[in-house]
Please model this.
Amino acid sequence: MYSTIYVEREVSEHSLTQRVLSQFPSADKVECERYGEIFNRKAQDFRLQKQRPSLMLARKYGNHVLPVPAGYGVGGDHNYYFSVMLNCIYDCRYCFLQGMYRSAVHVVFVNYDEFAESIRNSASEHGSHEQVWYFSGYDCDSLAMEPIIGMAEYFIETVKSLDHVWLELRTKSTQIRSLLNQDVVPNVVTAFSVTPDRISASLEHKVPRLDKRIAAMVRLQERDWKIGLRFDPLIFVRDYQVQYHELIEKIFSSVDPDLIHSVTIGTFRLPKEFYRTLENLYPDSQFVAQPFVLSNGTVTYPKSVETDMKGWCYERLVEFIDSDRIHFDELELESG
Amino acid sequence: MTASVNIVVAMKSEALPLIDRFGLERVSRKGDRFLIYGNDQFSLTVSGIGAKNSEEAVRNLSKQSTSTDVNAWLNIGVAGHRSYDIGTSFLANCIVDSVTKRTLFPVFAIDFGLPTGKVTTVNVVETEYQEHTGYDMEAFGFAASASKFSTLEMIHCFKVVSDNRENSVQRLTKKDVEKFIDNHVESIVVLCSQLRNLASSVVQRLEPEDPTVEFAQYWRMTVTQRRILRKYLHKTKILNKDIKVTSDMIRDCQSTSVMLESIRSCLDQHWNNL
Ligand code: SF4
Model:
């Protein structure tokens, strides 16, 4: 999978570095001082790099845990996100990471212990009666790299003993083995982002098929793990009602709606500058070429399209899920 | 709008096997600072020894291209190495300036199928070979300069080990250097074609011609309006709603802003199934 792995000298002996390197014995190992020497430097082409991304193993200094932007969340009292990985093994044409970073290098910060300490510290600032949420799928997919980096396994252990703390693992992957291999942890939600099959096939490159993701949801539910559904971003197509109807029917023909922790709904939206980058990177993409509108610095669907799609999906979803478990995601960025 | 590979070598002896194999013709004139050879796919320049020369040779060669051309850049040359065998070739995966310690990392967006290693660019001939690295005198200047004209996926350094502790650089002759490069010329041909394909893939993203030219004959436009029109026309083309100037359009749209508005509303029909 990786033929070049960059390693910050400082973490070259770290146990996770060693564990990852041992999985790619034939990869070219290149040492560097700081990940910024490679990641996000000028004169890089995200689209070319996406053909064959490298891996970077680094240490993150400071800002391990940050408050989420307003509007993000599933009803918690306090919401934070943390990113032990930047970039993603999948390639969704609407993904904001393409606009945010110049490099497609997968950066993994191996100092999980410092992230965990920040989680514990920030959680301790809030009363035990308050729900404090930590979202891990902000700059990456939370589970896609699990067999290689064991991120979910580590942070599930972190939050296990913190009763008022919740962890969301947002994903489009089916890498759930590390969850199935342990007893259920009730304050962890695996949140699956879903789009109809045909839309996924054209826009979500390398993402596992919906059937497989539904199968993963079912297996988690069978073991009492909480799962969430993220209809975010909703993608407009002419027959979106047909396609999303099929999607919702397909999911609930297998997944138990009563056991769904939460559902979020949000439409495609990107900060203007990120969208401009996408236009330059993918001028041949029909998705990117659509006549989106600019609203408060965000490129998105015309209001009427957004309102209709959200409203229509909400109406379908309340047939299965109580309205208090459905949240509208108003965040400007989305991933996972 | 073309995709090509610009090759930079330090010495004429490194250039000769390549000029021969690629069938390059001399492009530079007598008295020009740098020798330049080329054909429709490749250009080659002889920079002279040293990072500064290489940097300037890149800048000079870049002037041969128009702003819409996409070029890959390849530095080819001999290097000393502490531990690699004489005659071994490799691509630089890390290029260090021995004086400033600045480092550049070429990006491997495709599998070139070649071994890789570190290169340290020195400003005096290296005879100690202290570190496990290739020692050359151009790579950093070359790559730093080329990165002003292309992205790092398309900038690479191909080195052939010519000297080490046992085989002194002092004994190296021009004929030896020519032979070292000649021995790898077929790998270089493959590498150049891979780089050219990369550059071509970027060219394909660019619009071959400005679709606003015809419109500009009928409507006077500011720079911003022309940029907006170009964007709209691009979107209509990608969304299969290609818009051509018609006599109706000329009659109905008596000003540029009306014309732009009419194209925008045509685009907005995209959402109209609601
Ligand atoms: S949208 Fe999510 S799954 Fe898709 S590429 Fe971005 S981070 Fe990965």
Q: What stands out?
A: Residues 292 and 301 of chain A are 5 Å apart (CA to CA).
